[in-house]
Amino acid sequence: MPELPEVETVARDLRPRIVGATIVGARCSWARTLRTRSPEAFAEAVAGRRVEAVGRRAKQIVIDLSGGAALTVHLKMTGQLFVVPADAPEDPYVRLVLELGDGREVRFRDIRKFGKIGLYGRDPVSGELTVDVGGAAVFAAIGPEPLDPGFTLRDFRTRLRRRKGRLKPLLLDQSFLAGVGNIYADEALWTARLHPLRTVRTLRPPDERRLFEAVRSILAEAIERRGSSIDDYTAPDGDGSMQERLQVYQRTGEPCPRCGRPVKRVVIGARSTHLCSWCQRLTPADRAAASVILRGMTDGRRRPGGRWTGLAGEGVVGRTPAEAEQATRRARTERTQRAAATRRAAARASMAGSTPS
Ligand SMILES: [Zn+2]
């Protein structure tokens, strides 16, 4: 699922394409894509409005429109945004279209249909997006932006010390920090040499500092590299390259870039977590408390049940560890290539519509 760097990249690509354009209509083929209104009411509400700004808050794109309105786009699992000429072929996965006055369309393509688009008002006093005038802010429950220049180590510490629990679920908690998801939580914890199951109360000040710096540097680098193009993520200007720089995410069984021991995978709160259990140690107390979760840990070769396995699953049962590791790597390469081919096909039409006609 696209996280802060991917969503930021989509917003940056979109901005020069659509700011200044006027929306003249909207078509929606999957009503549940809309958070707040019926397709008809939505089309009526956006028609005639000019796009004034494109930004991001947490994992959502925010498109400010004239007259104090704003659209939010949550890409969720498979959402993609393209700007294409109106006569470009439209595939069946396009769920919502904003028709622009200059003959182009903003198309929201979403294979799995989890994506959401909201239409809100911007409160003239607070500047917050709200459902109704004076109503609750849309992003009220979302934590601070980790890359906000005003967000300091001191703020991070204060927030951290108010929390309990383990680091991985905490980093994924959007009320703690905005925009971090599974990929960058794993990468930040590895960089900071902190075990994902470490509890917050065992952190010492240097640990807190390393985590703060790791989260910010990973996210900043990922934005620079236009995000990680894994599975369905792509942006209007094309794929990102951060996936080539990931150290542990989806690298189960491969050597840890720091110590050479195999990267391990464990499921924490139903999410795959990747770590090096040598570089990311647990305190004895945390280890005892986390033993049930750690029992499920794998290095992509031997499952707790004793069968050889890997990302390729059942196909590698009965092979040697080296063969299994090779099969795992091959399966990942094939999956990545398949996903890239699908993305390229979808992006081709978008590239054609890069410049206003
Ligand atoms: Zn290591």
Task: Kindly describe this structure.
It is a single chain. With 357 residues, the chain is an alpha+beta fold. It is 31% helix and 18% strand. It is built from nine helices and eleven strands. The protein has helices at 4-18, 39-46, 153-161, 167-172, 182-191, 205-224, 284-289, 291-294, 321-352; strands at 23-28, 51-57, 60-65, 69-74, 79-85, 94-100, 104-110, 116-122, 129-130, 264-268, 271-275. The strands form three sheets. Strands 2-3-4-8-9 form a five-stranded antiparallel sheet, covered by helices on one side. Strands 1-6-7-5 form a four-stranded antiparallel sheet. Strand 8 and strand 9 form a beta hairpin. The protein is globular and about 60 Å long. The two termini are 32 Å apart. Mean pLDDT is 89; it is low at 304-318 and 352-357.
Can you tell me the residue ranges where pLDDT is under 50 for at least 5 consecutive residues? 304-318, 352-357
What is the distance, rounded to the nearest whole angstrom, between the alpha carbons of the first and last residues? 32 Å
The counted number of beta strands is 11
Portion in helices:
25-40%
